[in-house]
Amino acid sequence: MKKFLLKTALYIILVLAGFEGLYRAGFLPVVTDATIFDRKMFWLQQHQARQPKFIVVGSSTALYNVRSGQMARSLPVTYYNVSAPLLNVASSWIIVKSIVRDFQPKYIMIGSNIGDFGRRTDSTYSYYADASPLVKRYCPELLYLLDYHSIHQIVYRKLKVTWLDFDPWGGGVKTYDRSLIKKRVANDPGAYLGRLSFDTVYQRVHYRALDSMSRWLREQHVQLIFVQCPIRAGNLAGASLRAQVGRHIQICDSIVEASGGIFLNLYNAVDDRDSFFFDAVHLWPAGGDIFTDSLVRDLEKIVR
Amino acid sequence: MLFLSIPFLVFFPAFFLLYWGVFNRRLKAQNFLVLAASYGFYAWWDWRFLLLLAGSSALSYVLGIMMGRTGRDGYQKGDGYRKGDGFQKLLVGIGLVQGLGCLLYFKYFNPILPLGISFYTFKTISYLLDIRRGKIGPERDWVVFFSYIAFFPCITSGPIDRPGHLIPQLKARRVFEYGQAADGMRQVLWGLFKKIVIADNAAVFSDEIFRSYRSQPASALLYGVFIFTIRIYADFSSYSDIAIGASRLLGFDISRNFNYPFFARNIAEFWRKWHITLTSWMTDYVYTPLSISFRNLGRRGVILAILINFIAIGAWHGPRWTFVLFGFLHGLYYVPLILRRTVNKKRGPIHMVWTFLLVMLTFVVFKADNLAEAFDYYRRMLSPSLFSRFPIFEKVNTAAMLAGILVMFGAEWRQRDKKHALELSRVRQWGVRALIYCMLILVILTFGPTKNADFIYLNF
Questions:
Q1: Contact between B452 and A3 using a beta-carbon 8 Å cutoff
Q2: What is the pTM assigned to this prediction?
Q3: Separation of alpha carbons A110 and A98, rounded Å
Q4: Of the candidates B6, B182, B437, which has its C-beta nearest A4's C-beta?
Q5: Which residues face A224 on adjacent strands?
Q6: What ipTM was estimated for this complex?
């Protein structure tokens, strides 16, 4: 029996040592489907000393439009942006609970746009949310076991998905290739400039999620700040689309303020110029700077 | 609870240590632990159906005791009251109606299929029928009997062990043997290799090809059915390997369920090697009584019995006409063997390939959602695009899977006289054996797909 247990333990130790080696070499566990989100959360867990008191949650609009450096320098509290591409409102609701539990922030800012009220919820975020805070903080290597992913996938993520880098405050640092985007716009103007549509299938799910999130954050004494990010006016062709956007903004406003949250409408904070927008909702760095300036001006009155 | 899950990874080592370290002094306590663990294992999936499992076990237990008190000659021991053979038939009938009734209801009329119902029902039925046939006596120790029915390594997908094989093992004192446990561990490792590297990768590709078969060239459809055939074997046999290996770790010798079926040289041999415990169960309790009933019809009677037997095997898989046709076709493949009297004839390697192709092509019917889809798949497969190229996605996993298939067939061919491919008694140096295990562990951890597919036979 002892011989058997000893040999089995030896093989188990070998496997565990292998995974420890992977972790130390930066081949992090795959937790959610969002590589950048996983990387940021591991970074945050490893740097607990810098517990952020102001956390931004959102999709690519919050990731790239909100300029982290400006925010971190201007706000009187520690700041971090956990946004990830395609992180819609219902998925944000999944992780907000976990973020509040793990980091006890004073402010949660949802940087949102209409696209964040579409698409189905990404259930893989629940793998992160459901993981024990102790595991995440003291033994993140156990996350390799949480949801099985092969070493091939782990290595692939590290070596191939390299463009998803972020700055020390979690802001996206992807530099858009202007000539490439211009070429794409020339080939298919609709893809970047024309299409702005509402996903009516999942909209109610996201409104409900926003409502639950607002009320829950109030119970936790965490201030919710909901920011409506800019939309390129040129993309709002037609009265019906403009009315839809107006209605959407109104609904978000009423949901957030009903639970004591703060609604900041920066939907037209940036001039409708091609040098600022490269598609309907994403800004070039110059546009991002202008938008962040207006955001900071508003936040300075709120954040203490 | 599933074998490839975190709860099982915690449950089994804890159970193993308790089983051998704490409860090994008293057999009764050890069996009670097996029963408690089996019920816990089952309840983890859905505790409500635990009542059905316990109820079926309790009824069979009581019926068995009553059958034991009423001998076949109709003499009831004790008070001398004569009840006759008819009473024992009635008791078996009650057991059959309950078992088959529940099985038919849940399989064909209920949206939720209780986990393992097909497997534990066959155990209760064979228990009653074997008492009736005088092969075994009734089991009076309820802990042993309930453990036999619910034995956790085998409850969800078999093997379907006969009472005469497993109950005596539950009643005998078990002693930890290093050789048996180590071999059990090796069989588990081989099962994991087949499941994760081959079956789960094959599931991704075969599901995708069958889902979009209308837009795929014939060559992709052929590849799809080949991959599906490998997948179903690797998936189901890996489950059996893990179940048998886990049982060996606990000191039990469980019946073999697969004996390298793709090396069979005719369809009869294939079925003697594929899902052996189901085939032998059906042979004993369906085919043999039928062939006795039809004995006056000569070879036509044998053919009829085989066709009914295989249709029943097909229908056992679920409420779909595709399964019935799958069974019927396999029964039909027996006809030339019976007519030429070549059921047991040893043939050359070319027949191995032919048998594989026959089995592979029939799996189209098994996999398709309905008959129309199956025929459409065949029609599209027999088109000129059979020789065209098709795009391969996830190239690393495809390469790993194909290499895994080669390794599997190579190892199984070399080890075909052994119980499983990793029984490395030929390799004498421990260092080489350790290297093989380490390589296998590394391959398993490296080349799994994004998501593990459930074991296919959990659905049956």
A1: no
A2: 0.85
A3: 15
A4: B182
A5: A108
A6: 0.82
